Write the structure tokens for this entry.
Amino acid sequence: MAQGEGTSKGEGKSKGEGTSQGEGTSRVERTSKREGTARGRPARPDDAGSASVAAVSVVVATAVLAVAALAGTQALAERSRVAGAADASALAAADAAAGLVTGGGGPCSLAASLASANTVELVSCVVEGLVVTVVVTGAAALLGVPVRAAATAGPPPSAPDRTGPRP
């Protein structure tokens, strides 16, 4: 060996000469082979934006379910409101039939005024002794279907037949 020549390993060699495969390649070169997908295949152009479509679909489906749940909740609330109005009208009419409430023109008249105060319409009122049965309909139709409720009020079946309050 002549003086001045390098004796250490790798001196005088250009990058990549005499080295094992892959040692001399830069990090940028190795990663560029893997762009696209995890297995090194290039991304298909028809996959672009598919996650956005899926995300929009999930949002739309959630909105549709929320609207359906809201409509169902409103239907249950309207049914409860109309049933409560029917119960109150029947109880007031039964009290009037028993003579516990005076004035108002009779049991059915009292039931009608109480129904209108609860924003429902009295459809029928049947008085059989002290037992009164009323049917009411909700003033606002829900989803195009009117909400109806019936209620019966009076003394219990085991009570003696009374015509009015006792002194």
